[in-house]
Design brief:
The structure is a homodimer of 223-residue chains.
Chain A: E1 2-6, H1 11-22, E2 28-31, H2 39-44, E3 52-55, E4 61-63, H3 65-75, H4 86-122, H5 128-151, H6 162-176, H7 186-196, H8 202-206
Parallel strand pairs in A: 1-2
Antiparallel strand pairs in A: 1-3, 3-4
Helix pairs in contact in A: 1-3, 1-6, 4-5, 4-6, 5-7
Chain lengths: 223, 223
């Protein structure tokens, strides 16, 4: 039995959940609150990070969201997320890194810090300057998605791929936290509406974090 | 002709150079100083980061060090760096992420900030508290390498792999900047001496950054 150690608003956990959903894999969720720093998580993953995919039957543990996605891609032929030749695959992986690293650092991480960590742990109000900076960066990243969507069928090329999953995972967390303003980003908005209407995405959109409600449009498929 | 846009003390550039050396690939170096933020680099890589591998003949561009390494692995059978079954490959990729992300964030990045960026750009002395923290974190990571070396032939398993390259690339930059104290880490030291004596590693060890000399033991194969 696969168990996925994850947190509902962790964009890397979301990316893995979407991929497992696309590949139609059964798994159990184990919630890990990042602020708990549970010993059990550190025992599973020396880096102390989520997501971690744990096979309770065989005792196998796979950590790091990119390693997990590559593993699932190698193990399960269904719904390939890294198809094409090596150059196409490199382009998909470049985009995954762009969203996992740059988008996360510029947008998702500051939103999580200001709107989740400060509220739940420090009982402090968010820093409005940091929020403005994150939303400004989000516009820059959405501009790039607009451009990709203008030139390709999907972000990584002609096929739905891990690039779409990585981008949509980050955006969905930023959107939950009120950090996405779609004005002026019709192409990105249309692309995201298509991705979030997929069955693999639905379970994420119905989850709520206690005390932090998402905006009204968040779970709406045409929102 | 392959051109690698890189900086001599960028650990991610080093990882790619070691892999290209192991695979015996010819390429030309293009130096990118991270502080220059050249327009040409941003045109090659929207993330504005090095390394970038550019094929001047075909016009192909590959960005992100992990995407580059996966691409080289798929294109060149010689000197495989990700061999084994999917679980073994996942373990190698987990370790690559651990060194690329955790070791870099805890050790290499603060050392580069304090000893290179502050000196070359701000003409400021390093913050000794930040340096102490980085060196303390380095001990923790070296402890983990000691443990890996005690239980396996190489860091990722029974074969030399990308995990060894990622770890050695980070360590070599930290060592250049005087951030590695090998005392109490005999296993890690022995493993590193073997890796750094490989022909793929030699070109890195002879390069110097103007105004920042490495410690005496840095380029010594038994150092």
């Amino acid at each position: 039995m696969w168990q996925l150690h994850q947190f509902p608003l962790c964009p890397f956990s979301r990316k893995v959940r979407i991929v497992m959903g696309e590949k139609n894999l059964a798994y159990e969720l184990v919630r890990e609150n990042p602020w708990d720093k549970r010993d059990e998580l550190w025992q599973l993953n020396h880096a102390g990070r989520i997501p971690v995919l744990h096979d309770t039957t065989r005792g196998t543990t796979i950590a790091d969201s990119r390693a997990i996605c590559e593993f699932l891609e190698e193990m399960v032929d269904r719904a390939p997320m890294l198809s094409g030749n090596s150059a196409t695959r490199a382009e998909i992986r470049r985009l995954v890194a762009l969203f996992d690293e740059n988008f996360f650092q510029d947008v998702t991480a500051p939103l999580l810090e200001e709107k989740l960590a400060k509220r739940l742990m420090l009982r402090q109000p968010p820093d409005s300057r940091a929020l403005r900076e994150a939303m400004k960066s989000a516009h820059g990243h959405l501009d790039y998605i607009d451009w990709l969507v203008d030139t390709r069928a999907w972000l990584g090329g002609s096929m739905l791929s891990l690039a779409d999953m990585a981008a949509a995972a980050q955006i969905s967390v930023a959107d939950y936290l009120g950090g996405i303003d779609w004005a002026g980003h019709e192409q990105a908005r249309t692309w995201y509406a298509v991705v979030k209407s997929r069955p693999s995405f639905r379970p994420l959109l119905t989850e709520k974090i206690e005390g932090i409600p998402p905006p009204a449009h968040y779970a709406m498929v045409d929102g």
